[in-house]
Specification:
Elements: E1 10-12, E2 21-22, E3 26-27, E4 37-38, E5 42-45, E6 59-67, E7 82-85, E8 97-100, E9 104-107, E10 112-115, E11 125-126, E12 137-139, H1 147-155, E13 161-164, E14 168-174, E15 178-179, E16 190-191, H2 194-204, E17 208-215, H3 219-232, E18 235-239, H4 249-257, E19 259-264, E20 267-268, E21 272-279, E22 286-292, H5 296-314, H6 319-322, E23 326-331, E24 335-336, E25 343-352, E26 358-362, H7 371-374, E27 379-383, E28 388-389, E29 394-399
Parallel strand pairs: 6-7, 14-17, 14-18, 15-16, 18-22, 20-25, 23-26
Antiparallel strand pairs: 1-13, 2-13, 3-12, 4-11, 5-7, 5-8, 6-10, 9-10, 19-21, 21-22, 23-29, 24-28, 25-26, 25-27, 27-29
Helix pairs in contact: 2-5, 3-4
The chain binds adenosine monophosphate (AMP) and magnesium ion.
């Protein structure tokens, strides 16, 4: 995490800011609404003119003007008069309330109006600044720009806004056995899946995923791809080639060209993992490299635990939103395991139950190559070393998606 600080901020039009994190606080430069306006279609009045008005004793007022949204009127309203007004139109000077059209009857071709209800001063008037006050602190730095936040930014003319840009994250797969062109499988070949998955996961985390394809188990080729990725991207995610095999070229190349840390983590799946910093060609910058294991489920779990939080931090997320939410869930059918000195991250389906708690059940096959079962998981249960969780027992669970 300490190697993956937020990227330098940039100015972004508010319409392109959804999904980004604000790098600075935003104060409102303008009031919203900018002027007092009508909340309904109806008639602007002086509330006192309608004192005692009711269905039985309606009050007749002359209609002395009309104001539509986007227009305005210079006519100053006096007691005993009405001005026809539409939703969003400025409240005419002198008026202090709006009576809704449903409580009125238009007479004499619109020259007069019969009002069947009394109103109080302020009724159906949206006051200046009663959504946003000019000068108010709208958003702290670190706020995620949701579509609604972007709408508010637009409403106060806060465009462009200063945001952390989406990290550009290069994703590549390594392995001579991998194909992705749809051709018939030759002996020993498999279809590539991690890159397809990781491109989606990286995009889901709010990054720009850059597809660098499949790279053969060839050191020179891989070195070229990695070096140019460091030049054009903010982070690199590789899959495969980080364990103890003879053709684990990612390990061979990155050991030579980057400052790397090779790890065997006491977790299952996803034991082998590498993290390091790779310099750009001109040496002015270093780019983090996440070396994920090749087994698809291991790739996913190590991405979730070890890469995603760092990428989120680079995207500007504060500590509270860097990680997925976790809950203490109820393990419905139990989550048995054997003791092996590792924490097991079991893929589960989580749902809210009538008791108000999240309940989890295994999605089935838990092998690190069995992505199909894992693909049905919406959560990962963190099962500590030992013999697992008994039926009805409690287990800490990372929620991948909620709902
Ligand atoms: P490796 O980490 O390169 O030793 O690969 C471990 C296992 O994952 C092997 O069975 C590989 O064939 C498989 N594998 C590696 N990369 C991918 C990938 N991109 N898509 C699907 N399977 C992969
Ligand atoms: Mg390999």
């Amino acid at each position: 995490m300490s190697n993956c600080p937020p990227l330098p901020a940039v100015e972004v039009p508010c319409r392109a800011a959804t999904g980004l994190v604000l790098a600075t606080e935003v104060r409102a430069a303008e009031d919203v609404p900018p002027f007092a306006n009508s909340a309904v279609d109806g008639y602007a009045v002086v509330a006192a003119s309608l004192a005692g008005a009711s269905a039985d004793e309606p009050v007749l007022l002359p209609v002395v003007g009309e104001v539509a949204a986007g227009a305005s009127t210079d006519r100053v309203l006096r007691t005993g008069e009405a001005i026809r007004i539409m939703t969003g139109a400025p409240v005419p000077a002198g008026a202090d309330a709006i009576v809704m059209v449903e409580d009125t009857e238009r007479l004499d071709g619109g020259a007069t109006v019969l009002v069947r209800r009394a109103v109080s001063a302020g009724d159906a008037v949206r006051g200046v600044g009663d959504d946003v006050r000019a000068g108010a602190l709208l958003y702290a730095a670190g706020t995620l720009v949701t579509p609604a936040v972007a709408g508010v930014l637009a409403s106060v003319n806060a465009s462009p806004v200063t945001c952390v840009p989406r990290p550009r994250v290069a994703v590549l797969s390594t392995g001579d056995e991998l194909i992705d062109d749809g051709s018939p499988l030759q002996p020993g070949q498999i279809r590539e899946s991690n890159r397809t998955m990781l491109l989606g996961l990286v995009a889901d985390a709010g990054c720009d995923a850059v597809d660098l394809g499949i790279v053969r188990d060839d050191e020179a080729l891989l070195e070229d791809v990695l070096r140019s990725a460091a030049d054009s991207c903010d982070a690199i995610v590789t899959s495969g080639g980080v364990s103890m095999g003879d053709y684990d070229v990612v390990k061979a190349v990155l050991s030579r060209i980057a400052r790397m840390r090779w790890m065997q983590i006491a977790i299952k799946p996803a034991k082998p993992f590498a993290f390091g910093m790779l310099a750009t060609l001109d040496g002015t910058r270093e780019v983090p490299v996440f070396g994920l294991p090749g087994n698809p489920v291991s790739s996913l779990v190590s991405y979730e635990l070890l890469a995603r939080p760092a990428l989120r931090q680079m995207a500007g997320h504060p500590a509270v939103t860097v990680d997925r939410p976790t809950v203490e869930a109820v393990a419905d059918a139990g989550l048995p395991r054997r003791a092996d000195g590792k924490t097991h991250f079991m893929r589960v389906f989580a749902s809210f139950a009538a008791d108000g708690r999240v309940h989890v059940a295994s999605v089935g096959a838990q092998g690190s190559h069995q992505l199909a079962a894992t693909s049905l998981a919406n959560a990962i249960a963190e099962v500590p070393d030992g013999y697992g969780v008994a039926p009805g027992g409690s287990v800490r669970t990372i929620l991948l998606s909620v709902g």
